[in-house]
Design a protein that fits this description.
single chain; 2 domains; 11 helices; four-stranded antiparallel sheet; alpha+beta; Gyrase A, domain 2; Multidrug efflux transporter AcrB transmembrane fold; 19 strands; elongated; 20% strand
Amino acid sequence: MRGNLWRRIALVLFVTIAASAIARPGAEVIDLSVIGVPLQRDIRLREGLDLRGGIQVLLEARVSVGQQLDPDAMAAAQRIIQNRVNALGVSEPVIQAVQNNRILVEIPGVDDPDQAIRTFGNTGLLEFIDAATTPLSPGAHVRTSLGDPPADVVVALPDRVFPTVIQGRHLVSAWVSADELNRRNIVFSMGSEGADLFGAFTTANVGRYLAIVLDKQVISSPVIQSPIVGGQGTITGGGPRGFPLPEAQSIVAQLKYGALPVPLTVVQNRTVGPTLGQDSIQKSLIAGAVGLGLVAGFMILYYRAYGVLATLALIIYAIITMAFFRLIPVVLTLAGISGFILSIGMAVDANILIFERMKEELRSGRTLAAAIDAGFARAWTSIRDSNISTLITCAILYWFGATFGASIIQGFALTLGVGVIISMFTAITVTRTLLLVLQQLKILPREGKLGLVAIEARA
């Protein structure tokens, strides 16, 4: 018995200390290389869209009537959008498929939502077109041999279709650079096929216009001054300082990661301000502290010494849960915090079931040690069944959220599910260990109050 108890104590102490180190305020990285384990992990607490602020955009694939949407094309579109969003340098973006023809994009902490949407939502089809002797103004929409612009835009020279010479697929890289006048331009390089086509065309068309078009909109329309060989060129912006930096970065992201295989349109766009997020955080913290205090007060008032143990186990539960949120990692949202607070109540339920069962065992004349063992053994069935039912519900909710793009439901289901699993550990292991320790030390009263009813417990 004593050997088993010492193992329980060691386990609880180890888990609590490790969780406290991970969950402590300000912790950013866990580094186990100091003890010879090659592991480093970012453990910063991640805030979701509604807490940090940002944008949520739902994109839908546009297909012609009678045309079948290719699932592989949607998967490729999701990968390209992921790469484009990552190129923006934002943290914790969420890009997920919704149903068969939609992609949900959530980006926290975005300063320019419109530019971000253009970066990942535009098709990104780059074309070098033969404009011959026609100068085209930057921003104009044109028809090309690869298709027409959207029907809702004004087309320059609608009766003319400009032949496409080179496409974006011929590019292998693109980056933002500055020229000798400190103007911000976009430099690109081509593969061997593109370099040959580009060199041959510029050699044969010196003195004519070569327009650079992105999604049927003219970026620039320079005159070919001399043959361009080697497969490297520069796209210059129209302003005195060249391209604005956000626009240049957006264009580079679209060029580097290729055109979307299927056109997408924005069907829903929601912006959350960071001020609302900070206010929500403060209110959630207050609500959590008040709720935890009320629960602890009730347990101590009703169960006295046993309530103090349950409160200590509840604090350990909260520390372990927060550590898991950092390790998984869980992106905390208001709904996720709600799930966590609900799981606290379920953790308390487990302790109440145990204490009430112990009360019945004490009334039947068992010793305190026997009542502890029997109380946990006979309460376990109810705790297990209720928690498994909750976990099944969490799985259904998580699937529903993933299927229909309802990340708020996913966050609630995930935090509630994690909390329920950890609550089973703290109720069965932590609370029991604390009770056994105090019982061995003869600290628990021989006449304990369980349920505001004095019950004499035999040694």
